[in-house]
Request: fold
Amino acid sequence: QVQLVESGGGLVQPGGSLRLSCAASESINWINDMGWYRQAPGKGRELVATITSGGSTTYADSVKGRFTISRDNAKNTVYLQMNSLKPEDTAVYYCNADISPRGSFRTSNFWGQGTQVTVSS
Reply:
C-alpha cells in the first residue's frame, strides 16, 4: 500500500528556517505531480507549492520568495525549504502526490499524515 511519510516539522522562531521532507513508499511505478498544502487552526487546507515530474513549480503568493519546493525522483521524495518563516506560516503541512501504485497503470491521489510547523517566539 502506498504511503507518504513526512518529516521535518517543529517549532521555530520568526525569521528562522525549516526543511520538510516527504518520501513515498517503494511500492510504486511512478509519481507525477507532488505538492505541499497546509491547514492552519480554524481555516481550510490551502495550496503552498507544487512541482511536476519535470521540475516545473508553482507557489502560493504568500510564500513566493521564501519557500522552495524540490524533488528527488530517484528517492521518490519531495522537499519544502522554508526560509524567513512568519507566525502566519503556522499550520499542519501535508504532502500530496499523484502516484501509480505497483500493479496498477492508473494514478491516484495520496496524502501524507501531516507535520506540524509552529512559528513563534
User: Anything to note?
Assistant: The longest strand covers residues 28-39. The chain has a mean pLDDT of 95. The CA atoms of residues 51 and 57 lie 4 Å apart. The chain has no helices and eleven strands.
